[in-house]
Design a protein that fits this description.
The structure holds two protein chains of two kinds. Chain A is an all-alpha fold. Chain A is built from 14 helices and four strands. Classes of the chains: A mainly alpha, B mainly alpha. Chains A and B meet through helix 6, helix 12 and helix 14 of A and helix 5, helix 13 and helix 17 of B.
């Protein structure tokens, strides 16, 4: 029996690694073909990406990007574990960052108090915005996909309305850019200086904390267990005494609260204000990264790093005579290949399992006549 | 065979003369009454507020132009969801359509561009079909991936095709194709002018109808007419032919369909490919009719809005058309600086809410009635104490309306039973 379990684990590990590997190989293949089709040399492009991507300043840049992406990936993944598609992470984080920036700009309390208030404010806003979709789903049966898409657009409208001079916005000195009142410098979070390589956002710590909490709560607590049960079978969860509706609303709210954190590294470490150049669309990046990382805390981190790496290095390709727009192609192909590869590998694993069980049963049936070792 | 329990007419069985005759008759009368009532209400509101833009020819014409791409996206969603495949990749397929139309369109004729837009959309649809039908990937996941891929691919190709050589000389750049010739616009001679002169008098109801009709017969793109025909055609094919019945059976109960000898995979493939083509046509409309050029980010989320319009319309072409018209109308309001017009519509909202409150109270639904009444009073206060609705809110109107409608009626909506579910051949054994 011991032998058997150890073998299954190895196989599961193999299957788990096979899918992303398969996808990345496929994506490399497609990218190579695309570059070849434009009459350029793909080999040189890849080697440039690798050398440039592993330079120390690139690594700091990638880590900073990955911090934001990781938070987005986790926010989406919390919904995914419940079979909830929180497409609205995008609107949630933008609205949250905007409200937090407005509150932070108006606060006059010392920094040690202001920073937690700003962060809590962002989490609260994100949670509230997601709660609308969650409540509509459990009370009125509205699909969360459509509700959150609508809420994304409504969030854009609200920000557009409030971010005007005379409301919550103000014109900068140049008279061209409207932003919220910048945070007082006491609310700036210190950055980690890594020397010539640049500065590392200190909120990378926050991403790590969120990742550990995600792993712990989902994998090691009763709540997390219930949440995963609902995701896998609502009827089974209901039969074991879990209130499905409550779980849906709760996980939507938690997802929104984490989404609220997405804008914090940009706000507290980098920009210190919300304006029209605040990064948009990270919610959708988060969906891709959660898919890539298979909702696994470590997997999401790898996905976020990969995304940062691709962004940094394809940008540099421009100087080598390639088109930096190849980024979108690579990313799209990776995501599509990943989801297909997961499905193929899952099916293969299922087949293997069925064969094994079948073999075991056959062996058991044969046992009375001749003793046989289970292979 | 499906046990339907909704107010909406269940998908009627074709070739059943008795049943088929009765139902359309009844629902046509109902539809006519609803439209007539809405017209009357709008005419009253226009008279009280003096917001003549409400039913002006220009407003209706702009609304029509904006409704078409949304309607086509919704129709695309309808085809694929009726066959049981959720298609959130509509946005990506529309993007492919805009690119295809711009790419071929500027080099040759816009008609070939239109075809190419449809072709690119079909290509996107086929990718979705391969992922969801053949490989059984989750439909929403695959859709999101297609949106990413379509955006990335078109950005890359636009840089390659529009930023250099002859294209750049003709006015192209990485985010934009060179301009494309116009497709034909059609104006009904005589009628258009006559209606316009009637509309200018601002008579009660008469001018409103003249304005709306005028908007429909003046400078209408041929693609708009094509879209209307596609709507009627889709309804006919899906609800009046055996092909349509089989296709819908794949969305309701694929196992049963399979047991009757329907090749479910084939039908799903066909439905998703048609869906992609329609979405591509919607994108091509944006590129060729709305702006005469491919522009990056031109679709602006219309694929998602189309999906919402389809749900709004309860997975039926008629309701979907109404949803698309609503979105188009409010989009047009925003574009035509409609702060004042939307302000007038607040009054309409007050009337509707008050009526709803009365109805709910009459039906002894106390809570809902009181909430509706309070809302009516609040909106009335908003109407009385302001002159104009901020333009940002005008833009958000369709989204808020969709949310409200969905939350009020989601339980009455009935999606195809096996929509979004994974289906494997032989799973029913």
């Amino acid at each position: 029996m011991n032998k058997l379990t150890s073998r299954i684990d190895k196989e599961r590990l193999f299957l788990g690694v096979a899918a992303p590997l398969l996808a990345i190989v496929a994506a490399l293949l497609v990218t190579t073909l695309v570059i070849l089709a434009t009459g350029k040399n793909p080999g040189a492009a890849f080697s440039d990406m690798v050398t440039y991507g592993f330079a120390s300043d690139s690594q700091v840049y990638i880590l900073n990007k990955a911090t934001t992406y990781y938070l987005a990936g986790v926010a989406v993944a919390i919904g995914f574990r419940m079979n909830l598609f929180n497409i609205g992470v995008d609107g949630q984080y933008r609205l949250a960052a905007f409200v937090a920036a407005a509150v932070g700009g108006a606060l006059t309390v010392p920094g040690w108090l202001a920073v937690p208030v700003i962060i809590l404010c962002a989490m609260g806003t994100g949670a509230l915005w997601a709660a609308i979709a969650g409540v509509l789903k459990v009370t009125r049966g509205v699909s969360e996909v459509i509700a959150t898409i609508m809420l994304n657009s409504i969030a854009t409208a609200i920000i557009g309305y409030l971010l005007q001079p005379g409301k919550l916005g103000q014109l900068d000195d140049g008279g061209t850019l409207v932003s919220t009142k910048p945070l007082p410098s006491s609310s700036f979070l210190p950055n980690i200086d890594t020397g010539p390589a640049g500065v590392l956002d200190s909120l990378i710590v926050l991403a790590v904390v969120v990742g550990v909490a995600y792993w712990f709560i989902l994998g090691r607590t009763r709540f997390g267990y219930d949440l995963r049960t609902v995701g896998q079978s609502e009827s089974a969860a209901a039969a074991s005494g879990v209130s499905v509706k409550k779980m849906i609303a709760t996980s939507m709210i938690i997802s929104g609260a984490v989404a609220g954190l997405i804008g914090m590294p940009t706000l507290l470490n980098e920009g210190h204000q919300y304006d029209n150049s605040f990064p948009a669309g990270i919610g959708f990046t988060g969906i891709a990264i959660a898919l890539l990382g298979r909702n696994n805390p470590v997997g999401i981190a790898l996905g976020a790093l990969l995304w940062g790496f691709l962004e940094r290095t394809t940008n540099h390709l421009e100087f080598q005579g390639y088109d930096k727009e190849i980024l979108g192609v690579i990313q799209g192909v990776i995501v599509l290949c990943v989801v297909i590869a997961y499905e193929v590998v899952r099916r293969y694993g299922l087949k293997r399992q069925q064969q094994r069980v079948g073999a075991e049963l056959a062996a058991q049936a044969a046992k009375p006549t001749e003793m046989q070792e289970v292979a | 065979m499906t046990a339907t329990m909704t107010d909406a007419p269940p998908p009627a069985a074709p070739k059943a003369p008795g049943g088929a005759d009765k139902r359309p008759g009844r629902s046509t009368t109902r539809l006519f009454l609803i439209v007539a009532g809405a017209l009357l209400l709008i005419a009253v509101v226009r008279l009280i507020t003096g917001a003549n833009q409400l039913t002006s020819e220009g407003q209706v014409n702009a609304a029509l132009g904006l409704a078409v791409p949304i309607g086509l996206a919704g129709l695309a969603g309808l085809w694929s969801e009726r066959a049981g495949v959720v298609n959130i990749g509509l946005e990506g397929m529309m993007i492919l359509g805009t690119f295809g139309a711009g790419w071929i369109g500027w080099q040759s004729s816009p008609w070939l561009g239109l075809l190419c837009g449809i072709g690119f959309g079909v290509l996107g649809g086929l990718v979705h079909a391969v992922a969801t039908v053949t490989f059984g990937v989750d439909h929403i996941v695959s859709g999101v991936a297609i949106n990413l891929l379509a955006l990335g691919a078109t950005q890359y190709l636009a840089k390659l095709f529009f930023a250099g050589g002859k294209a750049a000389e003709a006015g192209g750049n990485p985010k934009q194709s060179p301009p494309v010739d116009s497709l034909t616009d059609i104006t009904v001679p005589g009628l258009s002018g006559a209606l316009h002169s009637v509309e200018r008098h601002h008579w009660f109801l008469v001018s409103d109808i003249a304005g709306i009709l005028g908007g429909i017969v003046t400078d209408v793109s041929v693609v708009t007419i094509l879209a209307v025909l596609l709507f009627v055609g889709s309804w006919w094919v899906l609800w009046r032919t055996s092909f349509g019945l089989r296709l819908r059976s794949c969305g309701e109960n694929p196992v049963a369909a399979e047991s009757l000898g329907v090749n479910v995979y084939q039908y799903k493939y066909a439905a998703v490919a048609i869906s992609g083509g329609l979405a591509g046509l919607g994108g091509a409309f944006l590129a060729l009719v709305t702006s005469h050029t491919y522009l990056e980010g031109q679709t602006g989320g219309r694929g998602y809005i189309g999906l919402a319009a389809m749900i709004f319309g309860n997975w039926r072409p008629g309701g979907l058309a109404m949803g698309a018209a609503l979105f188009g109308y409010s989009d047009a309001l925003q574009l035509r600086n409609g702060g004042v017009t939307v302000h007038a519509l607040l009054l309409l909202l007050v009337v509707l809410l008050a009526a709803l409150a009365g109805w709910k109270l009459y039906r002894k639904a106390l809570w809902q009635g009181v909430i509706s009444a309070v809302m009516a009073v609040l909106v009335l206060a908003w109407y009385l104490f302001t002159d104009e609705v901020p333009s940002d809110f005008v833009g958000a109107t369709p989204y808020v309306v969709t949310l409200l409608v969905l939350s009020l009626s989601a339980q009455r909506l009935r999606m195809p039973k096996a929509d979004g579910m994974r289906y494997r051949k032989g799973q029913g054994k």
